[in-house]
Amino acid sequence: MNNSFYQQASQTIDSQAIDSQAIDFEFDKQHIWHPYTSMSQAASVTGVHSADGCELTLSSGQKVIDGTSSWWACIHGYNRPEIIEAMQQQLTTLSHVMFGGITHAPAVNLCKQLVAMTSPNLTKVFLADSGSIAVEVAIKMAMQYWQGKQLPQKQRLLTVKRGYHGDTFAAMSVCDPDNGMHTMFSAAVTEHLFSPAPLSVFGEALKQGDTDALEAILAEHHQDIAAIIIEPVMQAAGGMHFYSAEYLSAIRALCNQYNVLLILDEIATGFGRIGKLFAYEYANIEADILCLGKALTGGYISLAATLCSDEVAKGVSDSPAGVFMHGPTFMGNPLACAAASASMSILQTGAWQQQVSDVELQMKTELAEAIDYQHVVDVRVLGAVGVIEMDSVVNTAKLQQDFIELGVWIRPFANVIYITPPYTITKEQLTTLTQAMKTIAANITQEQAAADSFSNG
Asked: Residue range 124-134: average pLDDT?
């Protein structure tokens, strides 16, 4: 150890008399990597001091309305008493304990809720750390299932283009192959099978021929395909596209026909975000494996879950390994489980249904006029998701600062300006968000657009 360096650093820290709420922006710029940024050209970041309800209080003292629910997760808003109290109580008893060979009430209670609120066939719950890991777990489950069914060659995955399932390697391998990260990590990314993205629009019937390419791949490769993985009804980070529920129904039927499992990634869509508790309800189908995350804890702490059927669990258990080969250190963390259980209890009151319905109606009314703006190609709303699609990629860094000046926090990506507000947002707050979206969309010009393929939602 370099003792002189350590002593010098300690003296520097001591001399700063650190305020836990003060932000050293220069240190942040020099040392801290934010999502999808370069350390050579550090992105501008905004300091946040606190949050309450649907508002963030910035380090400058300015309050802004949060239009993203912190990447779609804080569905109940910030500082929700039920979740805070559950976490505070859990902290005083058991904040963490290994899950290997041990169980505890927060995990058991949460899993009871998840089994009760998802489709009847989903009876087994694996608790994970994040959405990407929930997808990794689902992929492992599918592969081990077929090993247990004496069909070990079924190890490939089939999905559609324009999808997003996470940034870890297995999850990344089933993200869009053109706009994802396949070219950068081609030597390490497993090659899977991709079909064109669905063309059938939500609320409309399945377009003739829309699943032909998918079925052709299944017909040729089903002996090697373990599962189809897809985001049901809404492709989120792939551009916030809503597709026909009949397309999803057709996929379920094709999985049955060709003896392939169906993995539904509801990390973004789950827990009411697009008008149903789970997006698969629009198609009245069941998944073999279901991935959940983001809003699971109400956005208060990281936690995810992968659920599967008895049939899948038996196949995994019958595989040569005899056990499911995954076990994170922080699996089943009691603090996170307590937060998630409180969040699920809020959802179980049913208030979210009216809240989301009201948000949807208001956004449809207030965003409609944007379709006539010069560089707008589409305006779409489903549940608590509102989208203005531009005709070119926008400058995310610049626009998020422009939005702050308008009193809101909105982070566009690619060519999409969107909001996913907390369900508890007031009408006045939502109007401020939609007005800001329209203001920016109306004023944006081709000169302002900046191609930044790594700007992420």
From this structure: 97
Asked if the structure places residue 377 within a domain, the reply is yes
195 closest CA partner among 225, 168, 155:
225
**324 token code pair:** 């499911």
Asked if 43 and 104 sit in the same domain, the reply is: no
pLDDT digits (tens, 9 = 90+) for 92-113: 999 999 999 999 999 999 999 9
Short-list 312, 342, 284, 328, CA closest to 113: 342
* pTM of the predicted structure, to 2 decimals: 0.93
Q: Is residue 451 part of a domain?
A: no
Distance between CA 230 and CA 175 in Å, rounded? 10
Question: For residue 423, what are the CA distances in angstroms to 35, 187, 251, 362?
Answer: 25, 42, 30, 12
Tokens standing for 190? 């497993």
Average pLDDT, the chain: 92
* 174 in the same domain as 216: yes
Is the separation of the CB atoms in 340 and 102 below 8 Å? no
Q: Which among 348, 372, 396 is the end of a domain?
A: 348
The CA distance from 161 to 230, in Å, is 10
Separation of alpha carbons 417 and 406, rounded Å: 15
Query: How does pLDDT run across 32-54, given as a tens digit for each residue?
Result: 999 888 888 877 899 999 999 99
What tens digit of pLDDT does each residue of 135-183 get? Answer: 999 999 999 999 999 999 999 999 999 999 999 999 889 988 888 787 7
- What CATH number does the domain containing 154 carry? 3.40.640.10
Instruction: Give the residues across from 23 on adjacent strands.
Output: none
Q: Which of 348, 378, 403 is the last residue of a domain?
A: 348
Render pLDDT for 378-436 as a digit per residue (tens, 0 to 9): 999 999 999 999 999 999 989 999 999 999 999 999 999 999 999 999 999 999 999 99
Domain holding 363, by residue range, is 19-79+351-443
Per-residue pLDDT band at 19 (split at 50, 70, 90): low
User: What is the C-alpha end-to-end distance of the chain, expressed in Å?
Assistant: 41
* 217 in the same domain as 143: yes
Same domain, yes or no: 250 and 397: no
User: For 382-448, what is the HEC assignment?
Assistant: ECCEEEEEECCCCCHHHHHHHHHHCCEECCCECCEEEECCCCCCCHHHHHHHHHHHHHHHHHCCCCC
Distance from C-alpha of 91 to C-alpha of 257, rounded to nearest angstrom: 49
Catalytic annotation, residues = 36, 164, 265, 294
pLDDT for 20 beyond 70: no
70 shares its domain with 106: no
**Higher confidence at residue 285 or residue 188?**
285
List the CATH number of the domain containing 369. Answer: 3.90.1150.10
In a domain, 13, yes or no: no
